Amino acid sequence: MELAVLLVNALAAESVHGRPVTPPQTGGERLAAIHAGLAAAGRPPSGLTAADADRLAEVAAELRPLYGAGDRLPEAAERLNDLLARHGAVPTLYGDPGKPLQLAFHRPGATLVDAWAADMGTALAMVIGVGQGARLGACQAASCSLVFFDTTRNASRRFCDLSCQNRAKASAYRARRRT
To answer: Where exactly are the transmembrane stretches of this chain (predicted)?
Structure first.
């Protein structure tokens, strides 16, 4: 889930915290955005190429409609099923000798892009499949298109982070004061 949110925000966001942004347009820019997101999340850099980053931008654009989908979730899930099939999502146990096996959702020998797409798609499908699709949130602040996975106890998160929440509340307060 963390990787899906990271990629959608890094490669498909058109506004961030009230400011319009242009998503990265070239493979090099996309690769830099992915590596910056991974570094911010404390994850090691990937073995991706610029061409891989271009393909992941397409995956991120396909995953974006799932966040904040609400009543449109069934239609978005149909596209998710297509993504899972295209990238060969299949449960697989793998591991090194002497170490515990790990569960992944991509076929052995899959490309890094197919592996990431299959794993992210499966994570989203599992969340939706257990009735928790509402936890796939999109920021409700004006001019912010960032997404998040809501881990709050009562699934009530509405904003990507505190800065958007503060901005939205201040704006609402000013609007009330004007009237």
So the answer is: none
pLDDT in tens, 125-166: 999 999 999 999 999 999 999 999 999 999 999 999 999 999
Mention every residue, 6+ apart, whose C-beta is less than 8 A from residue 163. 17
CA separation for the pair 86, 120 (Å, rounded) = 13
For the record, the structure tokens of 129 come out as 């499949």
The C-alpha atoms of residue 137 and residue 158 are separated, in whole angstroms, by: 7
83: left (phi over 0), alpha (psi -120 to 50) or beta: alpha
How many contiguous H segments (helices) and E segments (strands) does the chain have? 6, 6
Write the pLDDT tens digit of every residue in 30-45: 999 999 999 999 998 8
Q: How many domains does the chain have?
A: 1
What CATH number corresponds to the domain at position 40? 1.10.3300.10
Instruction: Give pTM, 2 decimals.
Output: 0.89
